[in-house]
Amino acid sequence: MTTPSLPTSPEILTTTVGSYSPIDWLAALPSEQAVLDATSVVINTQKRAGIDLPTDGELYRYDPSHPDTNGMIEYFVSRLGGIRSEVGRSDGTAFRAKQEMSFRRKPAAVVEGPITEGVLDLYEACSRSASVAGGPLKFTLTSPFMLARTLLDNHYGNLDDLTLAIADALAEQVADLPCACVQVDEANVPGAPDKAPLAQAAINRILDKVTAQKAVHFCFGNYGGQTIQSGAWKPLVDFLNGLHTDHVVLELAHRPDSDLDALKEVGEHIAIGIGVIDIKVNHVETADEVASRIDKAVQALGPGRVKWVHPDCGFWMLKRSVADRKIEALVAGRDKFLGR
Predict the structure, then answer these.
(1) Average confidence score pLDDT of the chain
(2) Beta strands 13-14 and 138-142, pairing class
(3) pLDDT at 65 (0 to 100)
(4) Are the beta carbons of 180 and 212 closer than 8 angstroms?
(5) Of 5, 56, 107, 209, which has the most beta carbons under 10 Å away?
(6) Nearest to 169 by CA among 217, 108, 128, 122
(7) Does an H or E element contain 320, and which?
(8) CA 150 from chain center: how many Å?
(9) What CA–CA distance (Å, rounded) separates 311 from 321?
(10) 162, 202 in Cβ contact below 8 A?
């Protein structure tokens, strides 16, 4: 399969972060063919709006039993080997003792043995989406640190070993994915900067195996459409600079302006992507609002530093009518800023 490359113009590219709104007819009549058809719809919706690097919408990962996280956790942990998905009463009791995960009542799963590939097949998932993309595509996966924090560990006995074991299992799956960009998603470390060295080491193990463009997405949580991590970008600058990534995809539309000042310290070896669409509200931004957010970031970070603009996070908590208009506003605002 020939993999289309990233576009080289304009100077600021548009992309989406990952998930798309649930599609009613897919939920009503799920099948392999329906997933493929729905993925085609999602990608072409983005392309018609002018998105330069679309995502596949992650529709095949959506789990109605776990709507608060769109299935982005359960999709991975239910397929990796060494992990038990059935969670009992005592598992929940033990997990609730982990105070840092108090927003979850029970673990996503239980680690019972060494982490292995299991039945996870990211190449198959990416190939399915690429077959209907008709151009460059971004493929996403959840970071090892984020996955490890949601698990009850009955095997490794410490977070470091568990996180790196998950990283190694995922790294073996990313070398030849048929996409223009591979993005690792991390929504936990912004609220736990003391764990940044661990998260960085785990993410880099994956990035070092990626042969496509490398991206890492960070946000402060999108659990049921709500922020769940407190913190700021400033404590994470060294963490960001140490990532083996080509660009970062950062939540900023829903963040204070002071976060832009901290990002001035991100090295020029990493291109910066800024969130200019707030996915935690139903308000649809105007082109002027988006252009103003881009201008504010460019003024703060300097010319040539902002290479990507995108939503803050995925769209799964929003209705399609809202998500589609936000996608259109993203492109219109970028074009307005560039004078296109």
Answers:
(1) 92
(2) unpaired
(3) 67
(4) yes
(5) 56
(6) 122
(7) helix 320-338
(8) 16
(9) 15
(10) no
Kindly state the helix (H) or strand (E) to which residue 141 belongs, with its residue range: strand 138-142
Burial of 55 (0-12, 13-18, 19+ CB in 10 A): buried
CA dihedral 64, 127, 177, 140 (to 10 degrees): -20
Question: Which token pair is 191?
Answer: 């609220």
Give the count of beta carbons closer than 10 Å to the beta carbon of residue 118. 15
At 254-263, the pLDDT tens digits run 888 888 988 9
Q: What is the pLDDT of residues 117-154, one digit of tens each?
A: 999 999 999 999 999 999 999 999 999 999 999 999 99
Identify the H or E element spanning 200.
helix 196-207
Radius of gyration, CA atoms only, the chain: 19
> Which domains, and CATH codes, for the chain?
13-338 (3.20.20.210)
* 3-state secondary structure (DSSP) of residue 69: helix
Q: What's the pTM value of the predicted model, to 2 decimals?
A: 0.94
Structure tokens at 126: 């990416």
DSSP assignment string, 70-114: TTTTHHHHTTSEEEE----HHHHHHHHT-GGGTT-SS-SEEEEEE
Residue count of the chain: 340
For residue 226, the Cα-to-chain-centroid distance in whole angstroms is: 15
SS3 of 160, please?
A: helix
CA of 256: how far to CAs of 17, 259, 260, 262, in Å?
20, 6, 8, 11
